[in-house]
Amino acid sequence: MKVIHLIRPIQGLVPEVEKPTSAIPFREKVLWTSCALLVYMVLSNLPLFGVQRASSSDPFYWMRVILASNRGTLMELGVSPLVTTGKFVLYHYCCT
């Protein structure tokens, strides 16, 4: 039995993305890539309120060098603020 046969009953519940009807222009791809890069760079350097810059050793120093991030910035939080905001908006929307 193949894996596809096990997944087929729940396949209708999984959302899918439609294929684009036309080719996406190169300029538009560059525009969206530049916007994403700009947002990433801003969030990588935006300090968090109340976080003190410690002079202790940073175990993720080289990872921060590769990812162009600073210690105590908004990018250090990861996706948890997005998940929390999504849950809050969903709860607020469902209760109103």
Summarize the structure.
50% of the residues lie in helices and 0% in strands. The chain is mostly helical and 96 residues long. The radius of gyration is 20 Å and the shape is extended.
Describe the structure.
It is a single chain. With 96 residues, the chain is mostly helical. Helices cover 50% and strands 0% of the residues. It has four helices and no strands.
What secondary-structure arrangement, pairings included, does this model have?
Elements: H1 3-7, H2 26-45, H3 61-67, H4 80-95
Structure class: mainly alpha
Radius of gyration, in angstroms, nearest whole number = 20 Å
* Helicity, as a percent range: 40-55%
Order of helices and strands: HHHH
Describe the oligomeric state of these chains in a short phrase.
single chain
The poorly predicted ranges are none
How large a portion of the residues is in β-strands, by DSSP E? under 5%
Largest sheet: none
- How far apart the termini lie comes to 47 Å
| Contiguous helical run count | 4
Number of strands: 0
The global form is: extended
Mean pLDDT: 79
Sum up the structure in keywords.
96 residues, mainly alpha, 4 helices, 50% helix
